[in-house]
Design brief:
The protein has one domain. The chain is built from 16 helices and no strands.
Length: about 375
């Protein structure tokens, strides 16, 4: 009996731990990591190690200074560092992932109480912080390595930019979303200069882990099969983005082309499977999940079309993360509960008003009675003369 532990509900028996869930997420991210190395070389792997190392170190130092139990063994810091690195351009100076890792862990995660208590996705927030801090670095993307010409040595491309923040024009490349933005302004076909197969495989400019739709879909399928994420969020998010894109671009004559560009040419798939589904920052109710996912799709399309930025996934997820506490307050009516009519609501308000009026009258009477001065009669302690 001494080994029994009394705890509050819910009492759910499961063999899933935080460490096991994070391990599955890392396995799902592996195809995107491999794709980034195959497309951009080993420099993207260096960025990954710097990001992971800074996240783990930041969490370790925070717990050490605050004299708290170390939480680095649950692998959540490694997952944050991996997602952050895959959200960065393949080639950035070494200090960018380090600053981003410390910001994600210290500011967004640990200061709000640690894992499960953060108000927003740490990797997303860190990416936006880096974008606002180094706008040119975060929007400069390199071309895929041409291994046909460079051979095996192509794996070591771009290491000369480990300190230099300025990328030569000869190695930079526009992203499919940048082409789409330019096509929108010129009334042209957004896929005119882009190979659709290359976009699907990831042979284009873009963030390290977001370019290969094939790799992301493999990882997303793994998460769905293992039931790590709620299928409704990526399904509704992606579907609503496709629908809103078709609506907003219906008058361009290239609605289908814009749908393909928005679906496979940016961070939509990566965000839908790996960031929008974060347990701590996504709704817990069915209605909240529907509104959350639809809001993600609408905001993504609005930002991509009407803002100066090419991409809108990060900002859409951050904005909807902030709204999640309000969405969780939308609780469906229990089964069998009586339906309330307008008349019922009117009677309820009328009853409340009468009760308040009665309280006011009772309070006024008490004040009136207490205002009468007490006169002590002469005589003994019993009040008699």
């Amino acid at each position: 009996m001494k080994n029994l532990v009394v705890s509050s509900s819910p009492h759910i028996v499961s063999d899933r731990s935080t460490k096991k869930i994070m391990s599955d997420v890392l396995i799902a991210l592996t195809p995107a990591i491999i794709a980034s190395v195959c497309i951009y070389g080993l420099y993207s792997l260096l960025v990954l190690f710097l990001s992971i190392g800074s996240c783990v170190l930041a969490e370790f130092l925070y717990n050490l200074v605050r004299k708290k139990e170390q939480t680095i063994y649950d692998l959540s810091a490694i997952v944050t560092g991996t997602i952050l690195a895959l959200n960065l351009p393949p080639v950035v100076p070494f200090y960018v992932p380090i600053v981003g890792g410390f910001f994600a862990i210290i500011i967004v995660k640990m200061l709000f109480g640690g894992i499960g208590r953060n108000f927003a996705n740490p990797a997303i927030t860190a990416r936006i912080f880096l974008l606002l801090s180094w706008g040119s670095l975060m929007t400069s993307f390199v071309s895929p390595v041409n291994f046909g010409e460079a051979g095996v040595m192509g794996l070591f491309s771009y290491f000369e930019n480990i300190v230099n923040p300025n990328l030569p024009d000869a190695i930079t490349s526009a992203t499919p979303l940048a082409f789409a933005k330019g096509a929108l302004q010129n009334g042209a076909n957004p896929l005119e200069n882009i190979n659709m197969l290359d976009m699907f495989l990831g042979k284009t400019g873009g963030s390290a882990g977001e370019v290969s739709a094939l790799a992301i879909l493999i990882g997303g399928a793994y998460l769905l099969i293992k039931k790590i994420i709620d299928w409704k969020i990526p399904a509704i998010y992606i579907t609503s983005t496709v629908i809103f894109t078709a609506i907003f671009y219906a008058n361009t004559g290239y609605a289908g082309e814009y749908v393909y560009s928005y679906l496979f040419g940016g961070g939509l798939l990566f965000g839908a499977f790996f960031m929008a589904t974060d347990y701590a920052t996504s709704p817990n109710t069915f209605i909240g999940t529907i509104i959350y996912s639809l809001g993600l799709g609408l905001l993504t399309v609005l930002i991509r079309k009407f803002s100066p930025m090419d991409e809108g996934v990060s900002f859409a997820i951050l904005l909807m993360n902030i709204v999640v506490p309000l969405l969780d307050k939308i609780i469906p009516k229990p089964f069998g509960a009586p339906k309330k009519t307008v008349k019922d609501l009117f009677l309820k308000l009328k009853t409340k008003r009468k009760s308040k009026d009665g309280e006011v009258c009772s309070t006024a009477a008490q004040i009136s009675n207490s205002s009468v001065p007490f006169v002590k009669e002469e005589g003994g302690s019993d009040g008699k003369k």
